[in-house]
Amino acid sequence: MKQKILTMLELQDAMNTKVNSDWRSAGYPWYRAIWTECAEMLDHYGWKWWKHQKPDMEQVHLEIVDIWHFALSDLLIRHDSMEDAMEAALAGLSRPAGGDDFRESIEQMAQETIRTQSADITLFAAMMGLGEMNFDHLFKTYVGKNVLNFFRQDHGYKEGSYIKIWNGREDNEYLAEILTELDPDSASFSEALYQRLEQVYPAG
């Protein structure tokens, strides 16, 4: 688990650096990104009593992963070393805090994030558990999304030349398929994933 957390922290640092080499000094409001993602997740799960709603758990899980991107960034900013950030993440994930209602756990996460302007990993862990997502699922989905984001950047996403629809299907769909083919416990998981994306990308 420690190694997987370190891997995610390293990938997050690399992605943030790709967007802005001086990202640690930029003063980005990571906490604001977290609580707005919480609101989006609540919509995907459903809370409106005046209409029929069915939880979209696939979207809920994607929102949890998006929140984790920003939480990792916050951890990296608030700790002097990658190792310290990893230990803080491990401690938080090992001690889920909160009630037993998923909607309320989302609200708790949002409220505490706004109050402290930082990511509370114990509340995140509780929210993740109530959202039916375990650590291995978080790791695999996070790495997949991170590698896809890198792939997009390397293939012209910022310039507008990236092809998002591959033979009639979105790149996210290909990613989901590839993730089922690879071993997330492999030390070369992220590299293998990038290579598989290269193989199926239609632009030559």
TrEMBL record:
It holds the Pfam family dUTPase_2. InterPro entries: dUTPase/dCTP_pyrophosphatase. Gene3D superfamilies: Type II deoxyuridine triphosphatase. This is dUTP diphosphatase. It comes from endosymbiont of Escarpia spicata.
